[in-house]
Design brief:
Layout: E1 10-16, E2 24-25, E3 28-29, H1 36-52, E4 59-70, E5 79-90, E6 93-102, E7 105-118, H2 119-128
Antiparallel strand pairs: 1-5, 2-3, 4-7, 5-6, 6-7
Length: 129
């Protein structure tokens, strides 16, 4: 990891909630609101942005954990702001607190963890899968 990768680094992602972000099962939209899987995708993106500028050329990150409490819905047409903050670096684990908002209204909060490994190690792990 490059120098300066310390707790407190914050990155944000914004997303306009669209129809394709609604929860659908077997092609049937269940609710016209922001799905949990879309929310998790945006949390992963924000956490990745916390990490990416600090990776050395031989390193890569790989998501290993996410936990989320999805506490409020958000309707189609609203803009969601997803915030990731570096909480800790523990050995090769990068731990981010993540949260999503509609304006000031909390939609979800959680924690995302990435493992930082040599890029070739990750390729070997994937090749063996």
């Amino acid at each position: 990891m490059k120098p300066g990768f310390n707790p407190g680094i914050v990155r944000e992602v914004t997303a306009l909630v669209t129809e394709d972000m609604c929860p659908a099962f077997d092609g049937v939209v269940v609710h016209r609101c922001y799905s949990t899987w879309s929310l998790v995708h945006h949390m992963e993106l924000a956490a990745r942005q916390v990490l990416v500028d600090f990776l050395e050329s031989h390193e890569e990150g790989m998501g290993v954990h996410i936990s989320v409490d999805h506490v409020a819905p958000c309707r189609v047409g609203k803009t969601v702001r997803v915030r990731a903050e570096l909480a800790a670096v523990d050995d090769n684990r990068v731990i981010c607190d993540v949260a999503a908002y509609d304006g000031d209204r909390l939609l979800a909060k959680g924690r995302q963890i990435q493992a930082v490994l040599r890029a070739e190690t990750i390729r070997r792990i994937i090749d063996k899968a």
